[in-house]
Structure formats: C-alpha cells, structure tokens
Specification:
Bound molecules: manganese (II) ion
Shape: globular
Number of strands: 15
Number of helices: 3
Order of helices and strands: HEEEEEEEEEEEEEEEHH
Strand order of the largest sheet: 1-2-12-9-14-6-5-3
Radius of gyration: 18 Å
Structural class: mainly beta
C-alpha cells in the first residue's frame, strides 16, 4: 500500500503560480510594536495550526516549527511556568535562538536591558504582552519588536504549543531582569481578551 498521494513540489509550485494573485495576505498593524504579516504561499493548502499533537511517551512534545527544538531549557526553567526548549542557532554580532513552549508554558514578566528583542513566530499559537497593554496572539509570520527596557512576557496559549525565534544583540551590558510570574488566574483569563 502506498501512502496517500502528496502533491509534488513541482505541482505545488505550479498551483502557487496560478493562485499567487488570490492567495490570502493580511498586513495590519494593531499595535505600534506589532507588525503582522500572514500569508499562505500554497494558496488553497491550509496554514498549519501547529496544535500540540500527541504527547510522546518519552514526555517530549512534537516540534511545532521547522527549526530545531533543542534541549529542555533547564537554565531558565526557574523563570518559566511549564516546559520550554531552547535551541541556540547563532551567536555572532546578533544572537538567534529558537524557543519552544509546551501548551500552557510561558515565561515570567521580564525586561531585557540594553538590547531590543525581536520575536518571530514560527510554529503553533502563542501570546505576547507588554506591561499595561492587552495580550497579543502570535501565529507563524507574526513579528514582535520589544524595545530595550520594556517589561513583557511571551509563551504558548493554553491549548497549543508555540515556537518563536528570538533575536537579541549581545553585549557586556545586556542583561535580563526576571520578575513575577504570570499566574494561572491571569493567564487562563486571557483567552477572552486575546487580540
Ligand atoms: Mn523577552
């Protein structure tokens, strides 16, 4: 028995070229620091939702992104609720890593001093919130710019895992200030208000 036929790359490319003018493409700015670019390059093929999927017996989760998931994020575990994974990808003039959060996992409120942070959603569905502002939902294609010195948190939504790339500028004066956790009562009430 053969597996169900999967369109070849060539067939998908041909369909893409036929449909490229009608593919969904949304570009809106709902917040000065949040730029949303969402598009589905394969036209009628649904964008993956990145749900958590079945939890494997070895207690690791399925990777919701195309990037390496890395190892359990033990070094920062005390600043997170739930399990996260960290994959350092580049450490040059710019530091790039992929952070993956199991459903319900989020980091504490924190501040990156002396470096901005750019978050690029690459899998699943997540949250980002700045102090004093509404929570924002992040899906693959969403980019968030976190100005240096901004109190914020990020993580998964309760029912889906989440992965984002994180970009920062290393420096001797760059530090993270970890603050209070996002408690369960606050976190699980976000469903209703998430943009
Ligand atoms: Mn951050």
């Amino acid at each position: 028995m053969h597996a169900a036929a999967v369109p070849s790359v060539g067939a998908r490319r041909d369909r893409h070229m036929r449909n490229r003018h009608k593919r969904p493409c949304r570009y809106s700015i709902s917040d000065p620091t949040v730029i949303r670019v969402r598009m589905n390059p394969w036209g009628s093929v649904p964008v993956p939702t990145g749900s958590a999927g079945p939890i494997r017996k070895d207690n690791t989760m399925n990777n919701p992104s195309l990037f390496p998931m890395g190892e359990p994020n033990d070094a920062y575990a005390r600043y997170f609720i739930g399990q996260s994974y960290l994959a350092p990808l580049l450490n040059k003039e710019i530091a790039l890593s992929n952070v993956t959060f199991e459903p319900g996992c989020r980091n504490n409120w924190h501040i990156h001093h002396n470096s901005p942070q750019i978050l690029i959603a690459v899998g699943g569905v997540g949250y980002y919130q700045e102090w004093g502002k509404p929570v924002v939902t992040m899906q693959p294609g969403d980019v968030v710019y976190v100005p240096a010195g901004t109190k914020h948190w990020h993580g998964a939504t309760p029912h889906a895992s989440f992965a984002h790339l994180a970009i920062m500028i290393p420096g001797a004066d760059v530090s993270n200030e970890w603050l209070e956790p996002v408690d369960d009562e606050t976190y699980y009430a976000l469903d209703a208000e998430a943009a």
